[in-house]
Amino acid sequence: MFKIVGWEKSKVAYAVNGTSALIYEEGLIESYSIGPMSDFLKIRSAEKKGQEKNRNRLVSNALKFPYIQPNSKFNIRWLVFDIDREFDINEIYDNNFPAPYFVVFNPENGHAHLWYKLSAPIFCQDAFKNSKPYKYYKAVYKALCKALKADIHFNKTLCKNPIHESWKTVLLNDHEYNLGELASHLDINWEDVQQPKKSFFSRNKVKVEDLEEFAGTEKGSRNSELFEFCRHKAYKKRMISDCSESEFIEWCIELVKKADEQNPDPLAKEYRGEKELRQIGESIGYWTWANLEPLKIKASKYDDAARERSLMVRRKAATKKLKKIERYIKKHPQDSNRAISRALGDGFSTDTVNRLVKVIKAKKEAQAAQRKASRAEVVGKAPQDDSISERFVNQVVKAVGLLESGLPPGLVT
Hints:
It is a single chain. The protein is α+β, with helices and mostly antiparallel strands. Helix content is 47%, strand content 10%. The protein has a 4-stranded antiparallel sheet. α8 (222-240) crosses α11, α9 (245-261) crosses α11 and α14 packs across α15. The model is unreliable at 1-12, 198-220 and 402-407 (pLDDT under 50).
């Protein structure tokens, strides 16, 4: 009796008893509360999942949009799961799963977001991510996501707004769970949750040559595999393209559609629709166009003249820093490089001071060596060479006025 299919879009979202879901707006606003400063808290909201009007807004304004961020950046009050298929509410009861607070349906295809409310918030700032409550939350979320057959790669940044008129909202259970209640219905694999973190290089190492054929959906969600495959093709196209932005976006959308046709997983094809493919293509296209430039544009931007101007500016800045350090060393010759760095402040890190002090020392050594060589040439035994003798007369004898005092030039020899 709970199967929701073939809905026609109405102007007001509603709960299962027919009342308006807007009555839950006050409770939803309260769930974002973090204390006295809650009135100034902002969350992300959007008209669409793509680029349109996707920004941070005050909570009261954000709830007017179809897509909202379910939790603030400070704590987690809602567990949200993305069901990318026509969802039947009876699945909850048939499998003895805990009932969600909200089930928010897309009336066009029956896909849904399941919202579970926690009785106490879980702090999610970086300082708390190694705490036991946060690890417990991660374990419960992953186990429940697997049990519900939800999208495990759903990033929980934007969800269907349960009180917006674009969706059909069903209130199943107004109970607020603690993590222990949710865990009692689940089989949690703690070893799977506590995996060692991968290094930066292993996370970001992508070999384009390994993406010649679309691998399907075995390693992750259907959209993430498709996205990973297509974005590298779009990067290559952007670097050599000579087209407008709209043409490039359409090319990316067509690329996604063709890649989806080659997908060997028939289940993914069944779930994924034309609108979803277009969203993936637009996401790839807009980002690539904004962040990458064709090679010929880069070459024209960084020509030889511009490079010389850049080098000249950097040389001037380095010279100023060098003079400041020289003046400081004259006044405080006993100070260490770290003390110099602290005294001079911004722009004078310890590494910068170490490097410039070495330059100053090398400069002084070179000047000392040059003076020593000059003295040796003047005072030492001068070779019998007219050019050197003339140089001695010009540089030394004339400089001190010996010829004007009446001494004969033959004194040089």
